[in-house]
Amino acid sequence: MEKRKKNKLAAITKWVLWVLLVQFLLLNISAALYAYKLTHFYTDKQIRKPYDETNVFGKTWRLFSGPRFQKQITGDIPIFQYDTVWLQIKSGLKINAWYAKTDSSSKGTVIMFHGITSNKSVMIPEANEFLYQGYNIMMVDLRAHGNSDGSTTTIGIKESEEVKLAWDWVRQNGENNIFLYGISMGAVVVSKAIKDYSIHPKGVILEMPFGSMKSYLQARARLLGFRGFTQKPFSWLVGFWINVERGLQGFGHQTKKYVRHISCPVLVQWGAEDNIVLKSETEEVYKALTTSDKKLVVYENAGHESLLQKDPSKWQREIEDFFQRADY
């Protein structure tokens, strides 16, 4: 009798271990798929239809299978005159940029960087404002975005090379009064480039920078309706597979580490209704800034979107004030 009980207990234990092993394998397969698709942009037009986010099975399947992003080729064209500039990163990929001069006497140049899955054309309204305020502009498509080569993003880890190339191009064309502007991932890339290449801009504008790769991945989980504890193992597993598949060290990808190297005036802007970049991330990044000349501006009714288009008068006022302080 005793032997039968032991055999039964051993069988149950074995069955439980097999179930746990299968679940572990499925979780890692899911994370590996998600990691690949999250960092890869497709050029075909067969983008998957969105799942019903009110259905737990649909959300779970989407979490399991991963996103599918189409590479967004630059659409809108500026009404202002511009030159097309091509830069080349070390891997051989060509980076596309637009360069335009202000109609008035130039006060300097603003180099602009967009967010993930976006492209430089979404920054045309901001570019118009910079030109109006008397600054030349350079708008850059990061690798795998817009008209630049490539199909793989590193979520801002390697893209700092594009900032350095654009910086060097502007410097070689005689400009010394250079400002850096970035939205979301673009803001992270700007911060990392300052640290990686010891760049010293006249001023920096960071809009909605995410805190880390981990926090960005947790935001991806929130967008699928998963909150609380679920975000943490998801971000760790997907982050692990991104590192493996792309040869990165993403767990050290933290914006607060980069901004400590910024010594010039900084303007940080964020929307209070942002569901991708949280208030705690924004405050952490702002607190980590060691420069004495810094300002955090919150747009109460804005989300993760163009802050200029959400509140034009406030954005224009804050940018004008920032330039006056930075140029003093």
**Percent range for helical residues?**
40-55%
Number of strands: 10
Q: Runs with pLDDT <50, length 5+? A: 46-52
- How do the strands of the widest beta sheet line up side by side? 3-4-6-5-7-8-9-10
Q: Characterize the biggest β-sheet.
A: 8 strands, mixed
Shape assignment = elongated
What is the beta-strand fraction? Answer: 15-25%
CATH architecture label of the domain at 82-229 and 249-326: 3-Layer(aba) Sandwich
- Secondary-structure element order, as H and E? HEHEEEEHEHEHEHHHEHEHH
Looking at CATH, which topology of the domain at 82-229 and 249-326 would you report? Rossmann fold
Q: Identify the CATH homologous superfamily of the domain at 82-229 and 249-326.
A: Alpha/Beta hydrolase fold, catalytic domain
**Could you tell me the radius of gyration in angstroms?**
23 Å
Question: Can you put this structure into words, describing what you see?
Answer:
The chain has an 8-stranded mixed beta sheet with strand order 3-4-6-5-7-8-9-10, sandwiched between helices. It has helices at 2-38, 56-65, 124-132, 160-172, 185-197, 213-223, 231-246, 255-259, 279-288, 307-310, 312-326; strands at residues 41-42, 69-70, 83-88, 94-100, 109-113, 136-140, 178-183, 203-207, 266-271, 294-299. It is elongated and about 95 Å long. It has a domain at 82-229 and 249-326: Rossmann fold (3-Layer(aba) Sandwich), CATH 3.40.50. The protein is of the alpha/beta class and 328 residues long. The chain contains 11 helices and 10 strands. Residues 46-52 have low confidence and may be disordered.
Provide the descriptors you would attach to this structure in a database record:
single chain, 328 residues, alpha/beta, two-stranded parallel sheet, 44% helix
